[in-house]
Amino acid sequence: MSDWIPVFEAANSLEAHTLKGALESRGMAVQLRGEALSGALGELPMDVAQVTLLVQKRDWQRARAFLQEYQQKEKRTWHCAQCGEENDASFEICWRCGGGPKD
Ligand SMILES: [Zn+2]
User: Fold this and answer.
1) Average pLDDT in the 29-57 region?
2) Mean pLDDT of the 33-53 span
3) Residue 78 alpha carbon to ligand 1 centre in Å
4) 82: CA distance to ligand 1 center in Å?
5) 40: CA distance to ligand 1 center in Å?
6) Ranges of each domain in the chain
7) Taking all residues of the chain, what is their mean pLDDT, rounded to a whole number?
8) pTM more than 0.70
């Protein structure tokens, strides 16, 4: 049997799936927990329902390190949709071309 250990609370299903894909592309198996609840909770907005990412015990430290880096990057920088330049979070438009962030 495999040991699944919670490694991260995603704010929503979209983030959970993004991170799951990122971890899987690095060779780590990922399970999501809590996602099914969002339908059952009904009246709650989707973005309130948290999704827990679980990884196998042997991958936990690697996954944790990746997720911490992801969180810090999310706060500090964004990527320009037009030129792909990395911008500091304090900029609202790209310093290089004046474009905006993706999404
Ligand atoms: Zn740009």
Assistant:
1) 72
2) 63
3) 10
4) 5
5) 41
6) 4-76
7) 84
8) no
Residue 45's region, left for phi above 0, alpha for psi from -120 to 50, else beta, is: beta
Q: What 3-state class would DSSP assign to 31?
A: strand
* Position 41, amino acid: L
| Residue entry with tokens 């993706």 | 102
| CATH architecture, domain defined by 4-76 | 2-Layer Sandwich (3.30)
Are 89 and 78 within 8 A, CB to CB? yes
> What's the pLDDT band for 36 if we cut at 50, 70, 90?
low
Q: Which two tokens stand for residue 90?
A: 């304090």
For residue 30, the cross-strand partners are 55
- As given in the structure block, the two tokens for residue 72 are 């810090």
